[in-house]
Design goal:
By secondary structure, the chain is an alpha/beta fold. The protein is about 15% helix and about 30% strand. The strands form 3 sheets. A 7-stranded mixed sheet has the order 8-7-6-3-2-1-16.
Amino acid sequence: MNTVQYLGHSAFRVQLENLVILIDPAVGNSILGSPRRIASALNPRDVKECDLILLTHEQPDHCEPEVVKEIAERTFATVVAPKPALAKIDISERFKVDVRMGDKFTIKGLDIEVVRAVYPQSSYPVGYVLRSPRYSIYHAGATYSYPDMARIKCDVALLPIGGTYTMDPFAANNVCKEMRPKYAIPMHYNTCERIVQEVGEFSSDLGVHIKPIVLQVGQTAKLP
């Protein structure tokens, strides 16, 4: 089964065949210094299965060290992250993979490419492209748009649309139309007052080749 579950803010649970991946599993009550408006759908105590945890940067709305540690120690998940985020995670070094922009590697049968993210609040932000035999999924992390984003090719694009330190819906819409994924899923919006947006401004007018999938927190999309 291949699924994408939106856990809130930038957090996702992705299942590709038998591999379970958590991306940015942060559950705290504060986002960007403001109260969280929509609670996370993730309860770390309930996670019984996880193969990989990917972190896009070290800020607390994307990287909660105790949450990562709890899940990784229970499931023996490998934590993949740039050095500033990885340094915060108190687990055995053998379960850590330090990455830099431009890295390409295979772990547990999954091909991972580490791509650029533009987020001045982080000392080293990244995005990820995950490639399995059937699907490729791009998680942009927190990022503004930048010219080379159009070269990133994927079946599923997870894009921030919040507009505070990231793309707003219009910029994300334009980038998406240049990338031309099969499916586009917005994230990183409406979880605090500073990033409230109208999702239709992103999901409308994407063209006939791109299907928008707007997930409520906790909802899951099955990939065909």
